[in-house]
Amino acid sequence: MTLSLIERALRIAAIAHKDQMRKEGDIPYIVHPVMVALDLKARGFGEEVVAAALVHDVLEDTEFSEIQMEEELGSRVMAIVRAVTNDDSFSWEEKKLKYIETVREAGAGAMAVATADKIHNAESLIVAHAEQGEGVWANFNAGREKKIWFEEAMLTMLEESWDDPLIERYAELVREIKALV
User: Fold this and answer.
1) What CATH number is attached to the domain comprising 66?
2) CB within 10 Å: which end of the chain, N or C, has fewer?
């Protein structure tokens, strides 16, 4: 029996993220890529986009081999994953600007994964803020102001480059994040 692309991606994500926790501290990391993938699947995105969502943080946050991932998931999934992977050789702001442009250039699949990722992160941030208050901002390398700057810059790029209902949900969440006090 051959495993589906989505199951292969889920296995990679589960193994790669097995010992990691979310910034909130008590949530296994694997919950995040699964939630991103489920959102995209529910919205009718195809198998390659859903598979990419499952492994979207693997290259950035684990030691899993890019070569092995491409062998198991194919070049189309890898193109999306590469587009949504931050390049840590840059300063924080340069890295975020490069991310935005890379996602824009990569097209709809990368924009879908990036947007669903940002949506889940924003939802998690809002919940964590309700529980932790202003202390939640200490979980972010750049702090509140730069986090909001990045979310607004990402949203602007998406509004200019792509037409999908995910963008309106993301815009609502960006407004909610800005209103957090």
Assistant:
1) 1.10.3210.10
2) N
Our count of domains for the chain comes to 1
Phi and psi, residue 74, nearest 5°: 95, 165
Active-site position among 47, 61, 123, 176: 61
Active site residue 60: yes
pLDDT in tens, 96-129: 999 999 999 999 999 999 999 999 999 999 999 9
Residue 163 is a catalytic residue: no
Give the model confidence (pLDDT) of 32-48 as tens digits. 999 999 999 999 999 99
Half-sphere exposure in the Cβ direction for 130 (13 Å, CA): 6
> How many other C-beta atoms can be found within 10 angstroms of the C-beta atom of residue 118?
21
Q: Cα separation of 154 and 148, whole Å?
A: 10
Structure tokens at 29: 């990391």
pTM of the model: 0.96
Looking at 7, 60, 87, 168, which residue is catalytic?
Answer: 60
